[in-house]
Amino acid sequence: MGLWSWFGGSGRSGFGTWSTAEEVTEGIDATHLTAIVTGGTSGIGRETARVLALRGAEVIIPGRNIESALRVKESLLKENPSAKLQAMEMDVSSISSVISFARAFNSSNRPLNILVNNAGIMACPFQLSKDGIELQFATNHLGHFLLTNLLLDKLKSTAKLTGVEGRIVNVSSIAHRYADSSAMDFHKLNDPSKYKPYDAYARSKLANILHANELAKRLQDEGSNVTANSLHPGVIPTNISRHMNYRAIPFSLLKPFLKNVPQGASTTCYVALHPDMEGVSGKYFANCNQTTPSNQARDLNLGKKLWELSQDILEKLKQPK
Predict the structure, then answer these.
(1) Engineered SS bond to 204: which of 123, 140, 187, 265, CB 3.0-4.6 Å?
(2) How many CA atoms, within 13 angstroms, populate the side-chain half-sphere of residue 252?
(3) How far is residue 71 CA from its own chain's centroid?
(4) Tens of pLDDT along 197-210?
(5) Taking every pair of C-alpha atoms in the chain, what is the biggest distance, in angstroms?
Protein backbone atom coordinates (compact mmCIF):
# COMPACT_ATOMS: atom_id res chain seq x y z
CA MET A 1 0.00 0.00 0.00
CA GLY A 2 1.41 3.39 -0.98
CA LEU A 3 1.94 6.31 1.36
CA TRP A 4 -0.79 8.20 -0.51
CA SER A 5 -3.58 6.19 1.14
CA TRP A 6 -2.07 6.83 4.58
CA PHE A 7 -2.46 10.57 4.01
CA GLY A 8 -6.01 10.53 2.72
CA GLY A 9 -5.69 9.33 -0.86
CA SER A 10 -7.23 6.12 -2.18
CA GLY A 11 -5.13 2.98 -2.51
CA ARG A 12 -5.58 0.10 -4.96
CA SER A 13 -8.92 -0.78 -3.40
CA GLY A 14 -10.31 2.61 -4.32
CA PHE A 15 -10.60 3.53 -0.65
CA GLY A 16 -8.28 5.17 1.84
CA THR A 17 -7.77 6.71 5.25
CA TRP A 18 -10.95 8.76 5.43
CA SER A 19 -13.34 6.28 3.80
CA THR A 20 -16.26 5.29 6.02
CA ALA A 21 -17.70 1.85 6.68
CA GLU A 22 -20.85 2.78 4.77
CA GLU A 23 -18.83 3.97 1.78
CA VAL A 24 -16.72 0.82 1.47
CA THR A 25 -19.81 -1.42 1.62
CA GLU A 26 -22.11 0.66 -0.58
CA GLY A 27 -24.15 -1.55 -2.92
CA ILE A 28 -23.13 -4.81 -1.22
CA ASP A 29 -26.00 -7.22 -0.51
CA ALA A 30 -25.30 -9.14 2.71
CA THR A 31 -28.85 -10.39 3.28
CA HIS A 32 -27.67 -14.00 3.01
CA LEU A 33 -24.93 -13.64 5.62
CA THR A 34 -24.71 -14.13 9.39
CA ALA A 35 -21.95 -12.41 11.37
CA ILE A 36 -20.67 -12.29 14.93
CA VAL A 37 -18.97 -9.07 16.03
CA THR A 38 -17.21 -9.20 19.39
CA GLY A 39 -16.95 -5.85 21.13
CA GLY A 40 -20.06 -4.81 19.24
CA THR A 41 -21.51 -2.84 22.13
CA SER A 42 -19.34 0.27 21.64
CA GLY A 43 -16.90 2.13 19.42
CA ILE A 44 -15.86 0.67 16.09
CA GLY A 45 -17.39 -2.68 17.03
CA ARG A 46 -20.83 -1.10 17.31
CA GLU A 47 -20.33 0.71 14.00
CA THR A 48 -19.20 -2.54 12.36
CA ALA A 49 -22.33 -4.30 13.63
CA ARG A 50 -24.51 -1.39 12.49
CA VAL A 51 -23.12 -1.32 8.95
CA LEU A 52 -23.16 -5.11 8.48
CA ALA A 53 -26.82 -5.04 9.56
CA LEU A 54 -27.47 -2.05 7.28
CA ARG A 55 -26.28 -4.19 4.36
CA GLY A 56 -28.71 -6.92 5.39
CA ALA A 57 -26.59 -9.35 7.41
CA GLU A 58 -27.93 -10.95 10.57
CA VAL A 59 -25.56 -9.74 13.27
CA ILE A 60 -24.99 -11.33 16.66
CA ILE A 61 -23.71 -8.89 19.27
CA PRO A 62 -22.13 -10.50 22.34
CA GLY A 63 -21.87 -8.39 25.49
CA ARG A 64 -20.14 -8.96 28.83
CA ASN A 65 -23.62 -8.80 30.26
CA ILE A 66 -26.79 -9.37 28.32
CA GLU A 67 -28.23 -5.99 29.35
CA SER A 68 -25.48 -4.07 27.52
CA ALA A 69 -25.94 -6.14 24.38
CA LEU A 70 -29.72 -5.67 24.50
CA ARG A 71 -29.36 -1.90 24.90
CA VAL A 72 -27.19 -1.72 21.78
CA LYS A 73 -29.60 -3.95 19.88
CA GLU A 74 -32.51 -1.67 20.75
CA SER A 75 -30.60 1.50 19.85
CA LEU A 76 -29.58 0.07 16.49
CA LEU A 77 -33.14 -1.06 15.78
CA LYS A 78 -34.34 2.50 16.37
CA GLU A 79 -31.94 3.64 13.63
CA ASN A 80 -32.79 0.72 11.34
CA PRO A 81 -36.05 -1.07 12.23
CA SER A 82 -35.47 -3.76 9.59
CA ALA A 83 -32.06 -4.76 11.02
CA LYS A 84 -31.58 -8.41 11.91
CA LEU A 85 -29.83 -8.30 15.28
CA GLN A 86 -29.38 -10.76 18.12
CA ALA A 87 -27.94 -10.03 21.56
CA MET A 88 -26.06 -12.73 23.47
CA GLU A 89 -23.93 -12.80 26.60
CA MET A 90 -20.17 -13.37 26.43
CA ASP A 91 -17.14 -12.08 28.30
CA VAL A 92 -14.28 -12.77 25.88
CA SER A 93 -11.74 -12.63 28.74
CA SER A 94 -13.45 -15.59 30.47
CA ILE A 95 -12.82 -19.09 29.11
CA SER A 96 -16.04 -20.48 30.58
CA SER A 97 -18.05 -17.59 29.13
CA VAL A 98 -16.57 -18.08 25.66
CA ILE A 99 -17.32 -21.81 25.82
CA SER A 100 -20.91 -21.13 26.93
CA PHE A 101 -21.44 -18.63 24.13
CA ALA A 102 -20.00 -20.94 21.46
CA ARG A 103 -22.06 -23.86 22.74
CA ALA A 104 -25.24 -21.78 22.63
CA PHE A 105 -24.50 -20.43 19.17
CA ASN A 106 -23.52 -23.78 17.69
CA SER A 107 -26.72 -25.37 18.99
CA SER A 108 -28.92 -22.57 17.58
CA ASN A 109 -28.86 -23.97 14.02
CA ARG A 110 -27.81 -20.56 12.73
CA PRO A 111 -25.24 -20.46 9.93
CA LEU A 112 -22.05 -18.44 10.37
CA ASN A 113 -20.32 -16.63 7.52
CA ILE A 114 -18.30 -13.90 9.23
CA LEU A 115 -16.51 -13.76 12.58
CA VAL A 116 -15.11 -10.36 13.53
CA ASN A 117 -12.73 -10.63 16.50
CA ASN A 118 -12.90 -6.98 17.48
CA ALA A 119 -13.25 -6.76 21.29
CA GLY A 120 -10.25 -5.41 23.11
CA ILE A 121 -8.76 -3.46 25.98
CA MET A 122 -5.73 -1.20 25.85
CA ALA A 123 -2.82 -0.43 28.18
CA CYS A 124 -4.71 -1.07 31.40
CA PRO A 125 -3.00 -1.50 34.79
CA PHE A 126 -1.84 -5.05 35.55
CA GLN A 127 -4.76 -7.39 36.16
CA LEU A 128 -5.42 -11.09 35.84
CA SER A 129 -8.50 -12.50 34.17
CA LYS A 130 -10.89 -14.83 35.99
CA ASP A 131 -8.69 -17.66 34.73
CA GLY A 132 -5.46 -16.12 36.02
CA ILE A 133 -4.15 -14.83 32.68
CA GLU A 134 -2.80 -11.31 32.13
CA LEU A 135 -5.95 -9.44 31.15
CA GLN A 136 -4.87 -7.86 27.86
CA PHE A 137 -3.54 -11.15 26.52
CA ALA A 138 -6.65 -12.97 27.77
CA THR A 139 -9.07 -10.46 26.23
CA ASN A 140 -7.35 -9.42 23.03
CA HIS A 141 -5.92 -12.78 22.01
CA LEU A 142 -6.63 -15.89 24.05
CA GLY A 143 -10.42 -15.51 24.25
CA HIS A 144 -10.62 -14.86 20.52
CA PHE A 145 -8.28 -17.77 19.79
CA LEU A 146 -10.62 -20.07 21.72
CA LEU A 147 -13.79 -18.55 20.25
CA THR A 148 -12.47 -18.94 16.71
CA ASN A 149 -11.53 -22.57 17.29
CA LEU A 150 -14.95 -23.35 18.78
CA LEU A 151 -16.79 -21.73 15.86
CA LEU A 152 -14.51 -22.97 13.09
CA ASP A 153 -16.55 -26.06 12.25
CA LYS A 154 -19.66 -23.87 11.93
CA LEU A 155 -17.81 -21.50 9.58
CA LYS A 156 -16.53 -24.40 7.48
CA SER A 157 -19.86 -26.20 7.28
CA THR A 158 -21.72 -23.01 6.35
CA ALA A 159 -19.21 -22.30 3.59
CA LYS A 160 -19.48 -25.86 2.29
CA LEU A 161 -23.29 -25.87 2.39
CA THR A 162 -23.79 -22.45 0.82
CA GLY A 163 -20.74 -22.13 -1.39
CA VAL A 164 -20.16 -18.70 0.16
CA GLU A 165 -16.68 -18.05 1.52
CA GLY A 166 -16.40 -17.74 5.30
CA ARG A 167 -14.32 -14.89 6.68
CA ILE A 168 -12.49 -14.42 9.97
CA VAL A 169 -11.34 -10.88 10.71
CA ASN A 170 -8.90 -10.08 13.54
CA VAL A 171 -8.79 -6.42 14.53
CA SER A 172 -5.17 -5.75 15.44
CA SER A 173 -3.28 -2.45 15.62
CA ILE A 174 -0.22 -0.66 14.28
CA ALA A 175 0.94 -1.02 17.90
CA HIS A 176 2.02 -4.58 17.01
CA ARG A 177 5.21 -3.04 15.62
CA TYR A 178 6.36 -2.18 19.15
CA ALA A 179 5.93 -5.69 20.57
CA ASP A 180 8.64 -7.72 22.24
CA SER A 181 8.07 -11.26 20.96
CA SER A 182 10.49 -12.68 23.56
CA ALA A 183 7.69 -12.17 26.08
CA MET A 184 5.53 -14.81 24.36
CA ASP A 185 6.15 -16.91 27.40
CA PHE A 186 3.48 -17.84 29.91
CA HIS A 187 5.58 -17.00 32.97
CA LYS A 188 6.64 -13.62 31.58
CA LEU A 189 3.09 -12.82 30.50
CA ASN A 190 1.84 -13.23 34.06
CA ASP A 191 4.74 -11.58 35.88
CA PRO A 192 3.63 -8.20 37.30
CA SER A 193 7.26 -7.13 37.79
CA LYS A 194 7.81 -7.34 34.02
CA TYR A 195 4.48 -5.74 33.11
CA LYS A 196 4.35 -2.55 31.09
CA PRO A 197 0.80 -1.61 30.01
CA TYR A 198 1.51 -0.51 26.44
CA ASP A 199 4.05 -3.29 25.85
CA ALA A 200 1.43 -5.84 26.86
CA TYR A 201 -1.08 -4.22 24.51
CA ALA A 202 1.40 -4.27 21.63
CA ARG A 203 2.17 -7.92 22.29
CA SER A 204 -1.51 -8.85 22.24
CA LYS A 205 -1.96 -7.00 18.93
CA LEU A 206 1.03 -8.85 17.46
CA ALA A 207 -0.70 -12.03 18.60
CA ASN A 208 -3.81 -11.05 16.60
CA ILE A 209 -1.82 -10.96 13.36
CA LEU A 210 0.17 -14.11 14.10
CA HIS A 211 -3.07 -15.94 14.93
CA ALA A 212 -4.70 -14.88 11.66
CA ASN A 213 -1.64 -15.84 9.63
CA GLU A 214 -1.23 -19.27 11.21
CA LEU A 215 -4.97 -19.92 10.93
CA ALA A 216 -4.96 -18.89 7.27
CA LYS A 217 -2.14 -21.35 6.58
CA ARG A 218 -4.00 -24.19 8.30
CA LEU A 219 -7.24 -23.41 6.46
CA GLN A 220 -5.44 -23.27 3.12
CA ASP A 221 -3.63 -26.55 3.79
CA GLU A 222 -6.93 -28.34 4.38
CA GLY A 223 -8.69 -26.66 1.46
CA SER A 224 -11.36 -24.92 3.55
CA ASN A 225 -13.40 -22.17 1.93
CA VAL A 226 -12.70 -19.88 4.90
CA THR A 227 -10.22 -17.01 5.02
CA ALA A 228 -8.48 -15.29 7.94
CA ASN A 229 -7.03 -11.79 7.82
CA SER A 230 -5.99 -9.04 10.25
CA LEU A 231 -6.03 -5.27 10.19
CA HIS A 232 -5.19 -1.95 11.79
CA PRO A 233 -8.37 0.15 12.07
CA GLY A 234 -6.57 3.45 12.53
CA VAL A 235 -6.14 5.70 15.54
CA ILE A 236 -9.61 6.52 16.83
CA PRO A 237 -10.48 8.42 20.03
CA THR A 238 -12.77 5.80 21.58
CA ASN A 239 -13.15 4.47 25.12
CA ILE A 240 -10.48 1.80 24.55
CA SER A 241 -7.76 4.44 24.96
CA ARG A 242 -8.96 5.67 28.37
CA HIS A 243 -5.80 4.38 30.10
CA MET A 244 -3.47 6.20 27.70
CA ASN A 245 -2.12 9.60 28.71
CA TYR A 246 -2.38 11.90 25.69
CA ARG A 247 -2.67 15.04 27.78
CA ALA A 248 0.97 15.91 27.21
CA ILE A 249 0.32 16.11 23.45
CA PRO A 250 -1.74 19.05 22.16
CA PHE A 251 -4.95 17.79 20.53
CA SER A 252 -4.31 20.07 17.54
CA LEU A 253 -1.22 17.96 16.74
CA LEU A 254 -3.05 14.65 17.08
CA LYS A 255 -6.22 15.61 15.21
CA PRO A 256 -4.86 15.23 11.63
CA PHE A 257 -3.97 11.59 12.38
CA LEU A 258 -7.22 10.60 14.12
CA LYS A 259 -10.15 8.90 12.45
CA ASN A 260 -13.74 9.11 13.59
CA VAL A 261 -15.68 5.92 14.40
CA PRO A 262 -17.29 5.45 10.94
CA GLN A 263 -13.83 5.76 9.38
CA GLY A 264 -12.34 3.48 12.01
CA ALA A 265 -14.78 0.67 11.14
CA SER A 266 -14.18 0.94 7.41
CA THR A 267 -11.27 -1.51 7.09
CA THR A 268 -13.08 -4.13 9.19
CA CYS A 269 -16.19 -3.85 7.03
CA TYR A 270 -14.11 -3.87 3.84
CA VAL A 271 -12.28 -7.06 4.82
CA ALA A 272 -15.49 -8.70 6.09
CA LEU A 273 -17.78 -7.88 3.14
CA HIS A 274 -16.11 -6.57 0.02
CA PRO A 275 -16.11 -8.86 -3.06
CA ASP A 276 -12.49 -7.92 -3.82
CA MET A 277 -11.49 -9.80 -0.65
CA GLU A 278 -12.65 -13.14 -2.01
CA GLY A 279 -9.85 -15.70 -1.77
CA VAL A 280 -7.54 -13.31 0.11
CA SER A 281 -6.17 -14.88 3.29
CA GLY A 282 -3.29 -14.44 5.69
CA LYS A 283 -2.91 -10.75 4.85
CA TYR A 284 -2.81 -7.52 6.88
CA PHE A 285 -4.76 -4.39 6.01
CA ALA A 286 -4.84 -0.72 6.93
CA ASN A 287 -6.94 2.06 5.42
CA CYS A 288 -8.85 -0.56 3.40
CA ASN A 289 -5.71 -1.68 1.56
CA GLN A 290 -3.31 -4.56 1.98
CA THR A 291 -0.06 -3.49 3.59
CA THR A 292 2.97 -5.08 5.23
CA PRO A 293 3.11 -5.70 8.99
CA SER A 294 6.31 -5.99 11.00
CA ASN A 295 8.89 -8.70 10.42
CA GLN A 296 7.80 -10.36 13.66
CA ALA A 297 4.19 -10.46 12.47
CA ARG A 298 5.33 -12.35 9.35
CA ASP A 299 7.44 -14.85 11.30
CA LEU A 300 5.88 -18.27 10.59
CA ASN A 301 7.80 -19.94 13.41
CA LEU A 302 6.61 -17.31 15.90
CA GLY A 303 3.04 -17.84 14.70
CA LYS A 304 3.33 -21.57 15.27
CA LYS A 305 4.88 -20.97 18.70
CA LEU A 306 2.02 -18.67 19.69
CA TRP A 307 -0.55 -21.23 18.50
CA GLU A 308 1.07 -23.95 20.62
CA LEU A 309 1.40 -21.61 23.62
CA SER A 310 -2.29 -20.70 23.37
CA GLN A 311 -3.32 -24.33 23.19
CA ASP A 312 -1.08 -25.21 26.13
CA ILE A 313 -2.56 -22.45 28.28
CA LEU A 314 -6.11 -23.56 27.45
CA GLU A 315 -5.27 -27.21 28.18
CA LYS A 316 -3.81 -26.27 31.58
CA LEU A 317 -6.92 -24.29 32.41
CA LYS A 318 -9.06 -27.35 31.73
CA GLN A 319 -7.14 -29.46 34.22
CA PRO A 320 -8.67 -29.92 37.68
CA LYS A 321 -7.07 -27.76 40.37
Answers:
(1) 140
(2) 0
(3) 22
(4) 999 999 999 999 99
(5) 55
